[in-house]
Amino acid sequence: MPGALYCGVFCLGLCLLESSAFNLDVAETVLKYGDNGSFFGFSVALHQQLQPQPVSWLLVGAPQAAALPGQRANRTGGLYACPLTHEINDCKRVSIDEGVDLKKESKENQWLGVSVKSQGPGGKIVTCAHLYEARNRVNESLETRDVIGRCYVLSEGLKVSDELDGGEWKFCEGRPQGHDRFGFCQQGVATGFTADRHYILFGAPGTYNWKGILFVTNIDSSDPDQLVYKTPEPSERVPGNAGDVAQNSYLGFSLDSGVGIIKKDELSFVTGAPRANHTGAVVILQRDNVNRLVPEFILWGEKLTSSFGYSLAVVDLNGDGWMDLVVGAPNLFDRKEGIGGAVYVYVNQAGDWGSVHPTRLNGSYDSMFGITVGAVGDLNQDSFQDFAVGAPLDGDGKVYIYHGSNSGFAIKPAQVLTGESVGVKMFGYSFSGGLDIDGNLYPDLLVGSLSDTVVLYRTRPVIHISRTVTVSPQNIDLENMNCRHQVGICMDVKVCFSYTANPPSYSPPIMLEYTFDADTDRRQSGQTSRVTFLGWKTTDPEHQYSGVVELPAQHARVCARATLQVKDKIRDKLRPIVVVVSYNIKHPRTKRQAQGATLGPLLPVLNPMPPRTQKTEVNFLKQGCGEDKICQSNLQLSYRFCSRIDDATFHPLPRDSNGLDKFSMSDQKVIALEIHVTNYPSDAAEPQRDGDDAHEATLLVVLPSTLLYSALRPYNATEKAPPCIVSNQNASLVECELGNPMKRGAQIRFYLVLGTSGITLETTELEVQLELSTISEQLGLAPVVARALVVMELPLSIAGIAEPQQLFFSGQVRGESAMRRESEVGSPVSYRVTVSNRGQSLNTLGSAFLNVLWPHEIANGKWLLYPLRMELELSTQPQRPTTCSPVPNTLHLTLEPPHQQGRRKRETEQGGSPRQPRTYWERRKNVTLDCDLGTAHCQHFQCPLYSFDRSAVLTIWGRLWNSTFLEEYSAVTSVDVIVRASITVKSTIKNLFLKDSTTQIPVTVYLDPSVAVARGVPWWIILIAILAGILVLGLLVSILWKLGFFKRTRYEEAKVPQYHAVKIPRQERQLFREEKTGTISKKDWITHWNGDSDGHVPASA
């Protein structure tokens, strides 16, 4: 059904306690039993006879009751009348239908009592036998038997008193027979009266191939309208917007009527067709001017085979003068939702049924919820009509009571009556209400069953209590000791009661029990009360005071008082003290009345709305809370995870790229949580806005199962850590008192030391919930979750060394195919890689592998380092063979024992000669051969370490490929060859982390200096140098010549004496030497100066 509104699980009320009570009395019920197997209770009706004297009756249909002697049948059914007593077997069969004319009829299994209705006090009664059989031409070959049904109308005294009474209400008799006309009429499956008592209604669902028909006829002889109204025959179908139902619809299976359904002051009729369109339908009909009931609107069912329209009731739920509609669909089934029956409630929208969206009430699985629905009057006298729903297969059967309201109706049932509480099965198959039969002006309810039992529930008067509570003084001043007879702080509490009820004439004295309960909210949270009552009874706790008052009549006001005293040294001085006053009617103890006794008056019941409790708060005069006396704190919290250096020193943990603290389990047995709480104003420009004292400021720390509270440490030596206690047994809740109050501008910083023994390999994150609380006002004080990542840092380390660390190459180039022995390759080298495990064994963590990147080729593919063999030794498993992959020595060279490997002799090899250096400067380069740089190609060796405990050593022997170095690097200064090693761990643990997992091992290679060939400078370099020198010299001379460097300074010729020399013979020179020793004499030579201008001196003898 489009737009249907569904109430919660089973109407929010099917889970209530059995026989949940409001004002239908479940203690003083009246039970009546019928004959076994008679279906006593298949239909019921409340009836009140006024003449000759008022008598109330419980009318019960028993359609399988044994036949009377004159009926000449086995089972015919009957109508029973039960008086209003506690006797269980005093029901009498009503004397109707006592004879039979077998030539015209048969009453065998006619089901008299299948329906029964009463007009109300002093009105008529109708009961029907829908399987009554009319016969023609009995015992003849053309004998016919037509199941037309018939009904009996009785006067208020349950007798035939006038011409309208009797059993001649057979509208299908004398009409065309056959199943396509009126031959299976089944009149009386449903019957009823209009509220104005003018009309009687009969449903005949078997007419016209079970299309069904509704008969309406006048039953008031004073009414001039004596016509019979019925729904149109198939040949008289009137086209219209409403349409019509088809064959096999069972129209007339249920019916009702009311004024204000289509038009406010006009009578309309409603009938159900539970098989129409395979879903069911409800047809709203009105009379036309030719005595027909014409469909005005059709409500269709929602689901297939739900039997929508099996039952229905017209009732004004919200008191607006428009009649609402309640429709049962007992066969609606939904296995997934656990639904077994439903009821649709349509609240009339001023006659516009097309705009009505029903509310669907769901029944429990297989309960047949909605097999009967009906108006039950105003049970609680709140001016709104109520309705009930039967569910005979819900346990032993239940009846749900729903109260009307100004918004329509209350979805939650006001009361649930159960068959289990009265020992009746199939309880709730039928019921009748809306009539007061015990004289207290509240309508009562009669419930039938399929177990030959009916139960009468009488309605208790409803008392409405008015109360006022006052406390003096209204505020608690902790500095004012105001107790009258002792030292202390006291308060007086007073409550005043009065009551009203309907009708106003109902005004008995009422005994009311009351109880004062102090600090209720605080005690419900497990804390002690801050006050005690003076003069409290020893039977009451100190925080309660109880008593009884008598309200003599309606509107009489009676008061009660009590005195409270505040205890000494209370901590909570901010939150108010709550005083709760509760009350209830005190009923005298009564004994259940004996069978046969008349019914006594019922005790009243309190109206559940409003609640029977009233709270009153008494506030403390607040200090440190600003001018408005409202403490508006501003507690703020920050945190940081730390590692512990020593008992009083902590260091923040490192953080990842997302800003989360990262905790490593490798070497930390505890973790500390630094907590910083402040109470500063949020806006320094407006400090009065918040930041007031935070009363009872506490911090609740909720620890995960992986962490345990260990200790508390102050932030520094000048500060004290707040007191903290463990609140539960497993140390997962820690409560810290930050101050009472935590003053404005205060801050607290401390460390929570937490044990990490609960952290497992599966732990990836730590979450600690930090929740600040205060009884001061602070919005948005939500819990903070402190998070830290957990990484399992394996304490593995790797280191490597080469021996020797310097290598030399020399000799001549040889090809790969010429190699037969490892000694022919080149200089030997060995690498030793050591992996250390400083922690636990890897048994539970995973498998470790040692990886070696071995540079076996240079970039152009020539051999670089040739791997010969590998040996892996585990410290805990020295004898366990290990295999690294791939296997080295791919050329299968003949290997030498490691101890015979020495430095290869320097000798000249036959074959090619080393490449001459290309340039002079090439010998100056340093070359690095590294796979990460792309200058070499590496072979990946992987060795399983298994679950080693302490250490593992891998030794790799190899040879420097001499030929490659002679060809490619003979002219370079040095070559660095890099071998890289790393550790990897294969594990299912996602947060496993290796800190020092890689290393690199360098070896430097040089050209052997003892065999290096000295080479001169090339001739063309010398030539270029000479020419360059001459050019530079010429340029220098030219420049000096330009500057006059070669120009000499000339002087004027001077006349100077000329010197002339004459050769002297040897003998003369000897004489000269002799003269030196004696007297000097004049020599025989002439010397003179000639001062001629030509400068020449002539020789002269």
TrEMBL record:
<feature type="domain" description="Integrin alpha third immunoglobulin-like">
    <location>
        <begin position="796"/>
        <end position="1006"/>
    </location>
</feature>
<feature type="signal peptide">
    <location>
        <begin position="1"/>
        <end position="21"/>
    </location>
</feature>
<feature type="compositionally biased region" description="Polar residues">
    <location>
        <begin position="877"/>
        <end position="892"/>
    </location>
</feature>
<protein>
    <submittedName>
        <fullName>Integrin alpha-7 isoform X2</fullName>
    </submittedName>
</protein>
<dbReference type="InterPro" id="IPR028994">
    <property type="entry name" value="Integrin_alpha_N"/>
</dbReference>
<feature type="domain" description="Integrin alpha second immunoglobulin-like">
    <location>
        <begin position="625"/>
        <end position="779"/>
    </location>
</feature>
<dbReference type="GO" id="GO:0007229">
    <property type="term" value="P:integrin-mediated signaling pathway"/>
</dbReference>
<keyword id="KW-0401">Integrin</keyword>
<feature type="repeat" description="FG-GAP">
    <location>
        <begin position="26"/>
        <end position="91"/>
    </location>
</feature>
<dbReference type="InterPro" id="IPR013649">
    <property type="entry name" value="Integrin_alpha_Ig-like_1"/>
</dbReference>
<dbReference type="InterPro" id="IPR032695">
    <property type="entry name" value="Integrin_dom_sf"/>
</dbReference>
<dbReference type="GO" id="GO:0005178">
    <property type="term" value="F:integrin binding"/>
</dbReference>
<feature type="transmembrane region" description="Helical">
    <location>
        <begin position="1019"/>
        <end position="1041"/>
    </location>
</feature>
<keyword id="KW-0812">Transmembrane</keyword>
<dbReference type="InterPro" id="IPR000413">
    <property type="entry name" value="Integrin_alpha"/>
</dbReference>
<feature type="repeat" description="FG-GAP">
    <location>
        <begin position="415"/>
        <end position="474"/>
    </location>
</feature>
<dbReference type="GO" id="GO:0009897">
    <property type="term" value="C:external side of plasma membrane"/>
</dbReference>
<dbReference type="GO" id="GO:0050900">
    <property type="term" value="P:leukocyte migration"/>
</dbReference>
<dbReference type="InterPro" id="IPR018184">
    <property type="entry name" value="Integrin_alpha_C_CS"/>
</dbReference>
<dbReference type="InterPro" id="IPR048286">
    <property type="entry name" value="Integrin_alpha_Ig-like_3"/>
</dbReference>
<dbReference type="Pfam" id="PF20805">
    <property type="entry name" value="Integrin_A_Ig_2"/>
</dbReference>
<keyword id="KW-0732">Signal</keyword>
<dbReference type="InterPro" id="IPR013519">
    <property type="entry name" value="Int_alpha_beta-p"/>
</dbReference>
<feature type="domain" description="Integrin alpha first immunoglubulin-like">
    <location>
        <begin position="459"/>
        <end position="623"/>
    </location>
</feature>
<dbReference type="InterPro" id="IPR013517">
    <property type="entry name" value="FG-GAP"/>
</dbReference>
<dbReference type="Pfam" id="PF08441">
    <property type="entry name" value="Integrin_A_Ig_1"/>
</dbReference>
<dbReference type="Pfam" id="PF20806">
    <property type="entry name" value="Integrin_A_Ig_3"/>
</dbReference>
<keyword id="KW-0677">Repeat</keyword>
<keyword id="KW-0130">Cell adhesion</keyword>
<keyword id="KW-0325">Glycoprotein</keyword>
<feature type="repeat" description="FG-GAP">
    <location>
        <begin position="294"/>
        <end position="355"/>
    </location>
</feature>
<dbReference type="Pfam" id="PF01839">
    <property type="entry name" value="FG-GAP"/>
</dbReference>
<feature type="repeat" description="FG-GAP">
    <location>
        <begin position="356"/>
        <end position="411"/>
    </location>
</feature>
<dbReference type="GO" id="GO:0007160">
    <property type="term" value="P:cell-matrix adhesion"/>
</dbReference>
<keyword id="KW-0675">Receptor</keyword>
<keyword id="KW-1133">Transmembrane helix</keyword>
<dbReference type="InterPro" id="IPR048285">
    <property type="entry name" value="Integrin_alpha_Ig-like_2"/>
</dbReference>
<dbReference type="GO" id="GO:0008305">
    <property type="term" value="C:integrin complex"/>
</dbReference>
<keyword id="KW-0472">Membrane</keyword>
<feature type="region of interest" description="Disordered">
    <location>
        <begin position="877"/>
        <end position="919"/>
    </location>
</feature>
<dbReference type="GO" id="GO:0033627">
    <property type="term" value="P:cell adhesion mediated by integrin"/>
</dbReference>
<comment type="similarity">
    <text>Belongs to the integrin alpha chain family.</text>
</comment>
